[in-house]
Write a structure and sequence with these properties.
Helix content is 39%, strand content 24%. With 291 residues, the protein is of the alpha/beta class. The protein has two domains: 68 residues, no CATH class; 208 residues, 3-Layer(aba) Sandwich (Rossmann fold), CATH 3.40.50.
Length: 291
Amino acid sequence: MADSTTRLDPAFADRLARLAWRLSHGRDGERGRASRRTGGAHDFRGHRAYTPGDEPRTIDWAAFGRTDQLVVRTFARESESTVRIVLDRTASMGVDAKARRSVEVAAAVAWLALVSGHRVTAVAAAAGGVRPLGTWASPGELRDALAAFDALPPCGGADYSGGVGAWLGAARGPGACVLITDGVDEPRLDDVLERVGRVTRDGSLFHVFAARDVDPGDGACELTDAETGETLRIDVDTEVRRAVASRVEAWRRHVEASCRKRRVAYRALAPHDTLEDAIIAWHRDVAHDRR
């Protein structure tokens, strides 16, 4: 299994796994009779090694008694779905910690999907199109997914909408789509959201902000457009800071309204927001909308 520098805090990963289990089960803690019958909604597929966060009820204790190894039973769903993660790698994502933040979001989303029994496929999107990062089918493959996120290409260029639109248009089978972006200099972001809304009823957008996106600070400031290279020197005072904050908030509201119009779940991720709070709130909202 590949090594990775990206990590999910074990306690956080365990809380996510427990949350996924609670939201996917009824009040009595069962998925339902159909899911427990061979030939029903879930058919036995085989065994794999136990991974922390797996549901205890899936452990095959009989196999443990024979082999002294913890393994879990896996099942194939009749409507097994894929969670498609799109990571924005345009130049503006290289500002401050946005690229790293987006990878952390992708890791958490991938883990939630895998422990919920879904496949995960991820791509990096930039001006040159989309770059496949991999497809993973079980919680035991999380480290491979994290290693793929670590190997992401440098941020560069602008406007990934054409490549993402084509990739989504070629998607087959049921599933969800999670777009992780800052939305900066994406004139056709609405087109991408329109495509997401067409291919799935389970679309989501994480809107990632850096501290400098929201507040450029006081005094002399040199602003460089990360996607065009253009530089602007300005003196930042209170009026300028207010103007920047106003424009950023207007843009955030536009993106949120565009998502709502297309039934795409929206979650802003500001610099002061914790990853855990954002992911758990998003997952609960999405699970509630599906009911």
